[in-house]
């Protein structure tokens, strides 16, 4: 079958058996694990995943034609096909406590998929994603509402870089395979509210934070209001947020 790859779905297929196997090895899939693959496309990574002893594999793919194709070529009782948008998918519908996510993500919506992963952190202890190298570096090294949002709940590890030649069609950028590993976290969060709190702090980055957040929270958490948002550390965001929560 010849496919018309769709630009709007950012379809860049990973090829090369060696590299696909390497990604699956890095994900260390054990027996009895439930895995979710995001954007399986033509199923290159999927076939490698099915060589592991996983218990169940959910495939979440937005393109109905790809889903039809996958149903034709994959006959494995462990697979469940889901035609859905991974930026909005409610992972709690899968009724599993410990999902391992993996995917060669569509780069145009990779950040949204990462955000949606964090929104469902309670059932996702671990995720392995192929993203643009630059997106990986920004998440790990720079401060943005999303990087703080992710790092509050997950350790982000840069596993390896992958050159464009391993994809069809080759993307214009270098890729990176990253791992999100959930931290132990006792406090319960309202994630939507926490996101709003962070986006507000990160709006107009040059402005001092005392102009964006009530001074009583700053006093309670012992953080100077003269600071700019990029001068805050992860722990500062947490103490500010908890001061804000307590006063409600
Ligand atoms: N995993 C495959 C294809 C990766 S390309 C491989 O490595 O060869 C990205 C895939 O994600 C495409 O199949 C595309 O159709 C799918 N996709 C794009 N946007 C999506 C979304 N919002 N939700 C789920 N899948 C999406």
What would you say this structure looks like, in words?
The radius of gyration is 20 Å and the shape is elongated. The protein starts with 12 loop residues before the first strand and ends with a helix. The protein has a 7-stranded mixed β-sheet with strand order 4-3-2-5-6-9-7, with helices on both faces. Strands 1-8 form a two-stranded antiparallel ribbon. The longest helix has 13 residues. It is of the alpha/beta class and 248 residues long. It binds S-adenosyl-L-homocysteine. S-adenosyl-L-homocysteine binds next to β1, α2 and β3. The site of S-adenosyl-L-homocysteine has 24 residues, from β1, α2 and β3.
Short description:
The chain is 35% helix and 20% strand.
Name the descriptors:
two-stranded antiparallel ribbon, alpha/beta, 9 helices, 248 residues, binds S-adenosyl-L-homocysteine, single chain, seven-stranded mixed beta sheet, elongated
């Amino acid at each position: 079958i010849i496919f018309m790859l769709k630009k709007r779905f950012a379809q860049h297929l990973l090829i090369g058996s060696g590299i696909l196997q390497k990604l699956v090895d890095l994900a260390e899939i054990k027996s009895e694990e439930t895995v979710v693959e995001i954007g399986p496309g033509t199923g290159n990574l999927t076939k490698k995943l099915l060589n592991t002893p996983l218990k169940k594999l959910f495939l979440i793919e937005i393109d109905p034609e790809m889903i039809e194709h996958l149903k034709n070529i994959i006959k494995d009782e462990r697979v469940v096909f889901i035609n859905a948008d991974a930026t909005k998918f409610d992972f709690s519908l899968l009724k599993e406590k410990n999902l391992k996510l993996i995917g060669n993500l569509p780069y145009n919506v990779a950040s949204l998929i990462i955000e949606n992963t964090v929104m469902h952190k309670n059932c996702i202890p671990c995720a392995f994603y192929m993203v643009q190298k630059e997106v990986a570096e920004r998440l790990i090294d720079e401060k943005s509402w999303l990087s703080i949002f992710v790092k509050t709940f997950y350790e982000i590890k840069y596993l390896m870089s992958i050159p464009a030649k391993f994809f069809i069609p080759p993307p214009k950028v270098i890729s990176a395979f990253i791992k999100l590993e959930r931290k132990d976290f006792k406090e319960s969060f309202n994630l939507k509210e926490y996101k709003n709190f962070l986006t507000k702090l990160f709006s107009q980055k040059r402005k001092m934070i005392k102009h964006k957040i009530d001074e009583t929270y700053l006093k309670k958490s012992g953080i100077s209001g003269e600071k700019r948002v990029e001068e805050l550390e992860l722990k500062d965001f947490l103490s500010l947020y908890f001061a804000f929560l307590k006063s409600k």
